[in-house]
Inverse folding.
């Protein structure tokens, strides 16, 4: 069975701090995909990234970066120089979007 | 429309009643997904359509839940004999190429069973 664990329920930081959101997953599949989504207060989930299990290269997109480590079954997400607008619930998901973690609520204070 | 549209945005119904929730995906998207999200939890997969057919309905919790997509566009999630435990936000998403590709979500329908 697939499982995604986001151990951090809530994180609070002050603007401009860096913050890392953890994601650990379990799957028996040899090929799988990992995703991160952002859910702002409006409620609509916004796709951030998709990563294939064969591609362990880290990725950077502006202030966002992702660290995929197959050896530890982790796919962590870092926001550099956080901003108030980054405040949201962030979800990690595994394969086909079918298994989501319970999310991490990030609050960025001015 | 520009995005995935779900109607109604809110629905309050009495226990035992029948409800229908509608999803209009992004035009041209062949894949459509339904999820259920309870407070403080991540979305829970219900069903995935590729075109008109349900490619994966393994997430439907029981036979009170049913979904259709007769013309490969709009989808309706139907819940019979609603129970208080069905109260949640029901999310719909669509994607252009199917599973494991970027999905676009609607704002959800908040269903409250009283």
């Amino acid at each position: 069975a697939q499982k995604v664990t986001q151990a951090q329920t809530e994180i609070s930081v002050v603007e401009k701090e860096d913050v890392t959101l953890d994601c650990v997953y379990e799957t028996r599949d040899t090929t799988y995909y990992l995703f991160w989504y952002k859910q702002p207060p409006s409620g609509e989930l916004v796709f951030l990234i998709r990563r294939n299990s064969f591609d362990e290269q880290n990725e950077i997109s502006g202030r966002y970066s992702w660290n995929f480590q197959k050896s530890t079954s982790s796919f962590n997400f870092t926001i550099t120089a956080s901003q108030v607008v980054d405040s949201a619930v962030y979800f990690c998901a595994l394969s086909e979007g079918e298994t989501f973690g319970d999310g991490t609520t990030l609050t960025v204070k001015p | 429309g520009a995005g995935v549209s779900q109607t109604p945005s809110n629905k309050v119904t009495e226990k035992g009643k029948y409800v229908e929730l509608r999803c209009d995906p992004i035009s041209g998207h062949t894949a459509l997904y339904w999820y259920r999200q309870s407070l403080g939890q991540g979305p829970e997969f219900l069903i995935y359509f590729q075109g008109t057919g349900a490619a994966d309905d393994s997430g439907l919790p029981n036979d009170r839940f049913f979904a259709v997509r007769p013309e490969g566009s709009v989808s309706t999630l139907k819940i019979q004999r609603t129970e208080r435990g069905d109260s949640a936000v029901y999310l719909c998403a669509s994607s252009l190429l199917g599973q494991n590709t970027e999905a676009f979500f609607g704002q959800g329908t908040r269903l409250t069973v009283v």
About this structure: The mean pLDDT of chain B is 94. The interface with chain A takes residues 3, 33, 40-45, 48, 56, 59, 89, 91, 93, 99-108 of chain B (CB under 8 Å). Chain B has no helices and eleven strands.
